[in-house]
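A.,

Following up on our hallway conversation. Structure tokens first:
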């Protein structure tokens, strides 16, 4: 598997290759710490690739009075947009209003209003929504994103897909993010700065020896290796509690609440490029989001998930819930026949004793434990939007153990391929088309939204499509596959078509099988810049 040259001890060993683990690894190595990370599967293979794909402040969290979390997330949206304009971009959200919108009964806001204005009987008044959006516009010092406007739904593109009873809406800004690519680019940047990234490598045990952690790793092929580290970051996501109790064998009262969020992807339900924020009569909300040009993403649910070892799936009941919810707003009902794909992820929320999955805190919690001698920092919860701030908070707790730790540095520092202005996609598109005229419009857009300025490096000296080697379908070429294996830690067809891209929505099963066979047969000949 390979180990650091002339380096037997690392400062920080990170368990978990989701957004929190990779974000912390990147921040720490950039501050001068030696860092190693292990992920038992593919990067972003669990929670971090199963999000609703949004950088958002969390408008509904205002009802839970999580003001600090919302403010931090709102500020971060624009910080992140500047650092990754290829994989994130602004979106407008349409929030239709009707008189039957209700609070969830256990939110702090609903409890106060039930006392002060009992005649509302749990309904959300329009003035309260407008006040919430005013806070949303102003809490985060907005500079790039547009503010809230009122919208008449009659005779407008935004109103066309909606039921005629809906006449009024509010429109506000949030952002889209390619979640699993965000994780991979953080891992790549961490590696480029000196971190050692292991994928498909399980941490079998971590034990205290002479004031250090001795960590036993097992690669997928069964090969084992021991790493010594001064400190561990447990960013195991849904497995964070399992790592504490079973891997490190620490007796701790800290626990995780597993909440399953499921999504459905349907055929394209409307023609414009705005999202809808639908509020239910039960106080819940869902989004319908234009997705991958030809589809619509609908989510999410909130359901307790009991067993971390049980793979989360979007159950038939959850599918019916999402279909029924969207159909209460859309003119044309959405049915099972419209679904082309489903996915589900487990959010590892800090167990704060909340009465419902929806009410459990979305804020992150960082717990430092030195009971075994050498320190371990465990990460609970977190949102993709605040991953960078979570990493900075983690480094505040880590820094006292390492005198050489440098200052904060990640704000606005571009991720690989993101070194161009937020409004620079148009000129970059024109440049790519001019240099590679054989690319179709859709192909150009896909490459830019995945690789940004690195699309030029990927395509290199190609003069024709044939120069890129075999086309596996949907313009996924041999050269791109080699790039993903050599530079982006991909090992299987699934890594490529569902996490490095979303080409699984377009490619036929026989094309996917052919890609998988090719990758297996080529594995011995493809150079890998990371251990497997």
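Then the amino acids I'd put at each of the 532 positions:
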């Amino acid at each position: 598997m390979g180990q650091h040259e002339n380096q037997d001890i690392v400062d920080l060993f990170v368990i978990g290759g989701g957004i929190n683990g990779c974000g912390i690894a990147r921040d720490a190595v950039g501050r001068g710490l030696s860092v190693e990370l292990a992920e038992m599967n593919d990067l972003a293979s669990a929670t971090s690739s199963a999000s609703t794909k949004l950088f958002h402040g969390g408008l509904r969290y205002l009802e839970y009075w999580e003001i600090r979390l919302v403010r931090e997330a709102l500020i971060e949206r624009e910080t992140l947009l500047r650092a990754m304009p290829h994989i994130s971009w602004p979106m407008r959200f349409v929030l239709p209003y009707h008189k039957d919108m209700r609070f969830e009964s256990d939110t702090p806001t609903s409890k106060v209003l039930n006392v002060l204005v009992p005649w509302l009987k749990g309904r959300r008044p329009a003035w309260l929504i407008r006040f919430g959006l005013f806070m949303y516009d102003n809490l985060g010092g907005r500079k790039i994103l547009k503010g809230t406007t009122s919208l008449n739904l009659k005779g407008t593109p935004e109103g066309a897909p909606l039921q005629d009873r809906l006449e009024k809406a509010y429109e506000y800004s949030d952002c889209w993010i390619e979640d699993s690519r965000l994780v991979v680019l953080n891992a790549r940047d961490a590696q480029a700065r000196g971190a050692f990234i292991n994928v498909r490598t399980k941490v079998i045990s971590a034990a205290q020896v002479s004031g250090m952690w001795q960590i036993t790793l097992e690669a997928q092929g069964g090969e084992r290796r021991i790493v010594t580290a001064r400190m561990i970051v447990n960013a195991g996501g849904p497995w964070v509690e399992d790592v504490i109790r079973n891997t490190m064998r620490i007796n701790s009262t800290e626990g995780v609440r597993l909440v399953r969020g499921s999504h459905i992807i349907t055929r394209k339900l409307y023609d414009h490029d705005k999202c809808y924020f639908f509020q239910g009569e039960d106080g819940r909300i869902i989004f319908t989001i234009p997705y991958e040009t030809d589809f619509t993403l609908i989510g999410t649910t909130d359901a307790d998930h009991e067993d971390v070892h049980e793979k989360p799936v979007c159950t038939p009941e959850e599918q019916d819930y999402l279909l029924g919810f969207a159909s209460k707003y859309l003119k044309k009902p959405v049915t099972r026949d419209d679904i082309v794909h489903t996915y589900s992820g487990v959010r590892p929320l800090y167990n704060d004793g909340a009465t419902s999955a929806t009410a459990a805190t979305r804020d992150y919690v960082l717990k430092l434990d030195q009971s075994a001698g050498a320190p371990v920092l465990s990460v609970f919860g977190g949102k993709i939007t605040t991953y960078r701030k979570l990493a900075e908070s983690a480094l505040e707790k880590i820094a006292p153990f390492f005198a050489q730790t440098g200052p904060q540095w990640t704000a606005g520092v571009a991720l690989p391929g993101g070194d161009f202005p937020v409004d620079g996609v148009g000129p970059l598109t024109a440049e790519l088309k001019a240099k590679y005229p054989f690319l179709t419009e859709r192909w150009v857009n896909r490459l830019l939204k995945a690789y940004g300025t690195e699309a030029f490096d990927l395509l290199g000296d190609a003069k024709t499509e044939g120069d890129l080697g075999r086309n596996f379908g949907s313009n996924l070429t041999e050269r791109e596959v080699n790039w993903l294996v050599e530079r982006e830690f991909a090992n299987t067809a699934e890594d490529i078509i569902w996490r490095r891209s979303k080409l699984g929505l377009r490619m036929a099963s026989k094309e996917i099988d052919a890609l998988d066979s090719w990758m297996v047969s080529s594995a011995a000949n493809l150079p890998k810049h990371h251990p497997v």
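The radius of gyration is 23 Å. Curious whether your intuition agrees with the design.

B.
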